[in-house]
Known about the structure:
alpha+beta; 9 strands
Amino acid sequence: MTAEKNLETLRGQIDQIDRSIHDLIMQRTEVVSEVKKAKQEVDGPIFWPAREAEVLRKLLERHTGDLPHGALVRIWRELISAFLIIQGEFKIAVLDNEDGSYWDIARDHFGSQTPMGRHKTARGVLRVVAEGGTTAGILPLPQIDENEPWWPLLGSQGNGKLLRICAKLPFISGGNRRGGDVEALLIANLSPLETGDDKSYIIIELNELISRSRLTSTLSSAGLSPLAIVPLTNNTNLSEIFLIEVNGFVNVNDKRLASILENGTGFMTAQPIGSYAVPFRVEK
């Protein structure tokens, strides 16, 4: 067989594979339409970031060959987001930062067809998600010494909404997005779900001053060793408030939170404000 004939044969195989892939996508779309009907009967949300992370992890675990992991995730993210749009109203709010990195993170994760809106402030993102016209919002990671931190507002939106952190993005490292290694958090009116490899955020309020070493010791003794501690520096109340990131999944019924309040002197509240599936990191 000549090289030209061999190339023609290989192209024919690719054409057949493409048709098979397209047939399966159309078949999956039909199943998604049935899922839509089922969710309407139980009045359940169409959007579950934890479930999506589990799907991507399974794909990455079984993946072999030359196709980059990032390309595989991008393909599936386009499919997942397109199917969400089929199931119902779906829109993302994005903080409009100077270099556009949060917009790129949102576009890479939610695909080219998902409606997205820009907002000048983090409070603006929280507001539109709390009002219900927008499904989820992209916000920056909490930082020490922020003038207007957004995280203390979680859980205080009213209107029956209880916004929570539900994902950390991007889900996979690498790519050509603006901002390089910039990361963001996704917030939505959703109850967190455990995936088996998670991290969580907790807001701790105390009625007295406390050293970082004592705070760390108290949390660690309860089984919640802090990965990061962010104080609320512009707090006008007569209390100290901290945002704590910890390994593992923590929800409102976690007994470790009750243990902190019972055994930690000065601890007033320990409120979980969300969890996220740990993103996949590509080895360089």
